[in-house]
Design goal:
The structure is a homodimer. With about 350 residues, chain A is α/β, with parallel strands linked by helices. Chain A folds into 2 domains: about 45 residues, no CATH class; about 240 residues, 3-Layer(aba) Sandwich (Rossmann fold), CATH 3.40.50.300. Helix content of chain A is about 50%, strand content about 10%. Chain A contains 15 helices and 7 strands. In chain A, strands 3-2-4-1-5-6-7 form a 7-stranded parallel sheet, with helices on both faces. In chain A, strand 5, helix 8 and strand 6 form a beta-alpha-beta unit. The longest helix of chain A is centred in the last third of the chain and has 33 residues. Chain A starts with a helix and ends with a helix. At the A-B interface, helix 3, helix 7, helix 8, helix 9 and helix 13 of A face helix 3, helix 7, helix 8, helix 9 and helix 13 of B.
Chain lengths: ~350, ~350
């Protein structure tokens, strides 16, 4: 039996763990009462500090997240975690049980961890992530950690949902910092060099500091130029998030950590806290909230429109798989068909 | 001056390099004549073997791609490359010039390389990639290599565009094969363990083979169960691509390579060729073509719908940034607004 929205809303606001879990399941199933509850919760959000933790696979992000949870709990702060991770039908998660490690916090009512498999959320990853962050925020969590794997487009979109972005790397990914591509460099507020006791860690730290200096030294094209070339509805240029002033002169610190032993965690957590203070002091937090609102809205709109269009497609042209078969047989072409359908829908 | 579509179409079909580059620029700019040319070219596509090469940053995918180009050229086959890579305004590409290495082939008319920065293509990465693959296919390339970084949702979507997927990893990414998450394991047709002369390469190969055995041993839930839980418009479950029979019993080989010296490249290329033959022999190629058509169509439809909706939003509610500011101020909520707009558009 599903709790009535009003009741559910009150319980989530009171920090009730079961109600929070129930709402997340309702949202997974796209139940109208789930969305309705989310709408009512929305005005109670905006309080939590949302921290994105991203980086290549194998960098130890989960262990680092685990350590950050402990750090915040030791200071009496409550923590929500959204872990975005490819899942598998046969393991139900990451193969080697990153998630399991975090279950140490499972009995702590001040911690709520939600794992979000990308497989079940294809086409709606940023929407799902945004919603889970809102729920955790509304449920009173002081800090929400969003852990994402990889350095692709998803991560940039998901990064739009965070106030502070921590990019984690490790020594020895290549012979150089190839692993830190420019796109990721630009969204980082704090760098963590994890497995910092490994050979090559000094060099990785030095290389990152060099890249940060290079970024500072190089003149960017005027933002208008960039915005004009941005496709409609695409998130703003990640660099533009900084409002042209790198959040009031904020320069990403590079922190060396060893997540398995806990070394460097205090420094990393404090760097994140300092960034939070800098956001508040410079007004950058407001700009990031707007960027987050924009990303959430566009992700929702995209999903909603596509669902409506595909429903109509099925009524008028047949099941998507049949349409795909006709395209594959070159009986029709996807551009003409998408155009025609969009025109009819939006006439 | 832009060439008339008919003329451009004929020149692309004849393999004219300048016409091909021109069409790609037109598509970047979303010129109607570019789309029109693409529609006319479409029925001439479907001949090229499309190979996706994916894996974490620093795995040496570009060098490997470079070697594969050389391998095919030595056999008289023409090659197209689409490299999907985060870019930066100050380097115009990957920081350490992966792309530059590939410029060795710049003077060879049998090779066409196109780099696709994710930054300029946010929201349309799979659409752009699909289009570039179609152009290269129509221009007569025998093989099209699509190189993508990371293991996120993008890669799974882009993987839908390929006939054969090569997942590249390297030893030492972690203490285990954590780097190969389950989602990627499922889409791989061939595994490359690059930097295979490094310490730990034996273990990485062994671990991968163990995972492949595990995958074979574990019973999957019936496909129907899975499809029911798939969100509308999401690409089919990657595992379902295999039509329940792993492409007629195809088991992903694990090939050790050292891209910098060329060791193992022949074996890797032959494994890819064998997979191609297996696709043809089992009819799996047809299923993958349908999946590719579906992914292309849905990506186009999504983009087209969103563009139309945002144009109407601007006319009726104000600029997207103003709307985002109102959401950030909690004056309205994104769910209600997206819903209302979608309903009005699709009434």
């Amino acid at each position: 039996m599903i709790a009535a929205p009003r009741h559910l809303v009150d319980r989530v606001l009171a920090g009730d763990v079961r109600a929070t879990a129930q709402l997340m399941r309702d949202l997974d199933d796209r139940l109208p009462e789930g969305i309705e509850a989310l709408r009512r919760l929305f005005r109670h959000t905006g309080r939590a500090h949302v921290v994105g933790i991203t980086g290549p696979p194998g960098a130890g992000k989960s262990t680092l997240t685990d350590r950050l949870i402990g750090w915040h709990r030791a200071r009496g702060r409550t923590v929500g975690v959204v872990a975005v991770d490819p899942t598998s039908p046969f393991t139900g998660g990451a193969i080697l049980g990153d998630r399991i490690r975090m279950q140490d916090h499972a009995t702590d009512p001040g911690v709520f961890i939600r794992s979000l498999g990308t497989r079940g959320h294809l086409g709606g990853l940023s929407r799902s992530t945004a919603e889970l962050v809102h729920v955790l925020d509304a449920s009173g969590k002081d800090v929400v950690l969003v852990e994402t794997v990889g350095v692709g487009q998803d991560e940039v979109e998901i990064a739009e949902l965070a106030h502070t972005i921590v990019v984690v790397t490790v020594p020895g990914l290549g012979d150089d910092v190839q692993a830190i591509k420019a796109g990721v460099l630009e969204i980082a507020d704090v760098f963590g060099v994890n497995k910092g006791d490994r050979e090559g860690a000094d060099r990785t730290v030095r290389d990152l500091q060099g890249l940060i200096e290079l970024r500072r030294a190089v003149q960017r094209p005027p933002p208008d130029h960039d915005l004009q070339h941005r496709p409609v509805g695409a998130p703003a240029d990640p660099a533009a998030r900084r409002g042209g002033g790198d959040a009031g002169g904020w320069e990403p610190p590079v922190v060396r950590t060893v997540a398995t032993t806990g070394a460097g965690i205090d420094e990393l957590a404090q760097a994140i806290d300092r960034h939070r203070a800098s956001l508040d002091a410079t007004g950058e937090r407001g700009r990031r909230e707007a960027s987050r609102a924009r990303a959430t809205f566009v992700a929702l709109l995209r999903e909603r429109l596509l669902a409506g269009a595909l429903a109509r497609l099925e009524r008028e042209l047949g099941h998507l798989d049949e349409v795909a078969a006709r395209i594959a047989a070159r009986e029709t072409d996807p551009w003409g068909l998408a155009d025609e359908l969009a025109r009819r829908l939006q006439a």
